[in-house]
């Protein structure tokens, strides 16, 4: 069974916790991604910021994305996966926490992201179908 390191998208780019949500949105647009890891000044992962977070928690709440910091949207401890964890653990973690993207950690360093699309490319259809069903359920 493949590991997170084998199926992840490498070289995840962080948005700083002190950076504005507007800067994060511009970075997402430039990179063509729907989420960015939020990293603190200590380069440790603080959470994930998604395009949905920006729409619902900032724009929908009437906040100014230029004055709202990305770190304000980090909630609790980030759900991660170890670089050498296998695909079964990836599926369990995504399903248990109902997340579509997992930051991949090697030691204390962020080395990539495993997204739902990465899982879909790497695993057999029945496993992917089970994941999609779990993530789509209320």
Structure description:
The protein has 138 residues and is an alpha/beta fold. The protein has a single domain, classed as Roll (CBS-domain). It is built from 6 helices and 7 strands, in the order αββαββαβαββαα. The strands form 2 sheets. A 4-stranded mixed β-sheet has the order 1-7-6-5. It has a 3-stranded mixed β-sheet with strand order 2-3-4.
Blueprint (SSEs and pairs):
Blueprint: H1 4-7, E1 9-10, E2 15-16, H2 21-31, E3 35-39, E4 45-50, H3 51-59, E5 81-82, H4 87-97, E6 101-106, E7 109-115, H5 116-122, H6 125-136
Parallel strand pairs: 2-3, 5-6
Antiparallel strand pairs: 1-7, 3-4, 6-7
Mean pLDDT: 87
Termini distance?
29 Å
List how many beta strands DSSP finds: 7
> How many distinct helices?
6
CATH superfamily: CBS-domain
- State the assembly state of the protein chains: single chain
Largest sheet geometry: 4 strands, mixed
Side-by-side strand order of the widest sheet: 1-7-6-5
Strand content: 15-25%
Class inferred from helices and paired strands: alpha/beta
Low-confidence stretches: none
Q: Based on the structure given, which CATH architecture is correct?
A: Roll
> How many separate domains?
1
List keywords for this structure.
138 residues; alpha/beta; CBS-domain; four-stranded mixed beta sheet; three-stranded mixed beta sheet; 39% helix; globular
